[in-house]
Amino acid sequence: MPDKNSNKILSFIKDNPSLSSKQIYDEIQLNVGYATVKRILTKLLSENLIITDGKGKGTKYKVSVGFELFYPVSLSQYFEKEVDEREIKSSYNFTLINDVLSKVTLFTSDELEHLNHLQETFRKKSQELTEAGFKKEMERLAIDLSWKSSQIEGNTYSLLETERLLKEKETAQGKTKDEAIMLLNHKEALDFIIDNPDYIEPLTIARIEDIHSILIKDLGVERYIH
Question: What pLDDT score does 2 carry?
């Protein structure tokens, strides 16, 4: 997460796009040297928070297309503000997938290397599992993923209650019917992806919508058709 000076520079560039590093240094008036400002700009570039236009002394800086995806947000600071002081989006950004995600790299080269290493480790270990062992691991994944994903949506089932529901179809006392449906839908969606791996390659908006339709089935949620 960017430090205090980095955040100030980011905010300044957002409000004052297309300035050179020298102009940024002169106008922002941080208690640091020009070399430090240059170093911060280089770091922000590597984190995909800003982009450049031009070369050499004519290089100008502005926030990147994916700025809002990567810009760190402090929840505590956000909720300390009064409601009318918060920057609140009034609608969903329907251009996010086509116009933003298609033009930005979500991970740095180091992050990609780490993720690829984890993927290779998983591939090797999964090949060593017996069929029964692999099935058990996938069952555990379904329980953990369904529980955590539903918890984000406000589901109050505990991990143990989720396990009983998914393995034994035992609903928890004091919980709503929709909470159980939500968890069962998550399990069904994951089973669908595991049973049909070719369906998500390539992953298209239509296919994402199909999987989403499994997640919202019988929950009274209106499906958005792109």
Answer: 63
In a domain, 142, yes or no: yes
CATH number for 74:
1.10.10.10
Amino acid at 150: S
Pair (93, 139) in one structural domain: no
Q: Is residue 113 part of a domain?
A: no
Q: What is the residue range of 208's domain? A: 130-215
pLDDT tens, residue by residue, 45-98: 988 789 999 988 899 999 988 887 877 778 888 889 898 888 887 888 888 877
> Which range among 13-17, 43-47, 153-157, 209-213 shows the weakest confidence by mean pLDDT?
43-47
